[in-house]
Write a structure and sequence with these properties.
Elements lengths: L1 H10 L1 H49 L5 H16 L17 H12 L12 H45 L3 H31 L5 H12 L21 H27 L2 H8 L4 H6 L1 H39 L16
Length: 343
């Protein structure tokens, strides 16, 4: 009986592992929701109380304004704000949401699925065009990013790992893990910490945590939209808005490509592949012979490449010795060795 139970458990091991994965993810989401609720709820209640008090003070100071008229004005202002139009600073005609550079920034956030939400189409024609543009543009962007990432992976990840594997004779799994760790540290430094420090000088109302928060939310394509660079209402704080938005667009696209390179490098780790296999179905793992053949072919090609490299090193060493002998005029005629039978 115990043997039958053990055999059944072994057969359904991946199913149980996958079920534990589902339960773990649900618990992770639930715990995260509870933590966010416990942290943010007091701040929300405090902000609501402040707004209510400020509204009541305004009505007390301006008795000629009725509560209904103020409510109507606030609703209209909030509706316009949801469409990216603010009642603050509207006297500045140079600050447009739909000039070419702003539209370029908008298309980059749409195609990369970042979607800050600070600027949205106002007309029905614009909403319809956004749908059709995204249907074609998002798959095209995924294709473009995949092609770019694979080319960068060849230069940044695969060739260095193969080179140092042959040079230092370190196992590929260990070397790949070290490389992925170093690459992650470098990308985190140059894409998060340094840009966040730069944004402090460009955005006067941001502190370092706000800047770091914006960089992380943007490069992970979460795009909550609560922090958007260049959306300040002070004209002196942003003297070159066009150039600034172009730089932000270039940073977002470059940072997204680099982030995908890091993620792809980590996903190609042998340790990650073994971890993912734990959650695959048994029949899929057994029937996936094509993947196994590909792995065997790659392993055989690596061995063949190593053998050819050894042969080339031997040939180069023999050539160097021959050249040295010719240089010193000490070369002797070549006499082949013939194996003779002993009579």
């Amino acid at each position: 009986m115990l043997r039958c139970c053990a055999a059944s458990m072994e057969r359904h091991r991946t199913a149980l592992t996958f079920a534990l994965l589902i339960v773990g993810y649900i618990l992770y989401v639930t715990i995260g929701a509870g933590i966010f609720s416990a942290i943010e709820m007091p701040y929300e209640q405090e902000l609501r109380a402040e707004l209510k008090a400020a509204r009541q003070d305004f009505l007390n100071d301006n008795t000629c304004v009725s509560d209904a008229r103020l409510e109507e004005l606030l609703v209209r202002a909030l509706e316009a704000s949801n469409y990216g139009v603010s009642v603050l600073g509207n006297d500045n005609d140079s600050d447009r949401n739909w000039d070419f550079v702003s539209s370029l920034f908008f298309t980059s956030t749409v195609l990369t699925t970042t979607g800050y939400g600070h600027n949205v189409p106002l007309s029905d024609v614009g909403k319809a065009f956004c749908i059709f543009y995204s249907i074609l543009g998002i798959p095209f962007t995924l294709l473009f990013l995949s092609a770019v990432v694979q080319r960068i992976m060849m230069v940044v990840t695969r060739r260095p790992v193969t080179y140092f594997h042959r040079r230092w004779a370190i196992s590929k799994p260990r070397l790949a893990a070290i490389h992925a760790t170093c690459l992650t540290i470098l990308m985190t430094l140059f894409l998060l910490f340094i840009p966040a420090w730069i944004f402090i000088g460009l955005e006067k109302d941001w502190n370092y945590l706000d800047s770091l928060y914006f960089c992380f939310i943007s490069l992970t394509t979460i795009g909550l939209g609560d922090y958007v660079p260049g959306e300040t209402h002070s004209k002196d704080a942003n003297p070159h808005p066009v150039l600034y938005k172009l730089m932000i667009t270039a940073y977002l696209l470059t940072g997204l490509v680099c982030s995908l390179v890091v993620l792809e490098t980590c996903c190609e780790l042998p340790q990650m592949k073994r971890l993912r296999q734990r959650f695959y179905q048994e029949n899929v793992r057994e029937l996936d012979s094509e993947t196994a053949n590909i792995i065997e072919e790659e392993h055989g090609s690596d061995q063949l490449s190593d053998h050819m490299a050894d042969n080339l090193s031997v040939i180069s060493s023999v050539s160097e010795q021959a050249a040295s002998l010719r240089q010193h005029n000490t070369a002797s005629p070549y006499t082949p060795v013939v194996n003779r039978k002993i009579r």
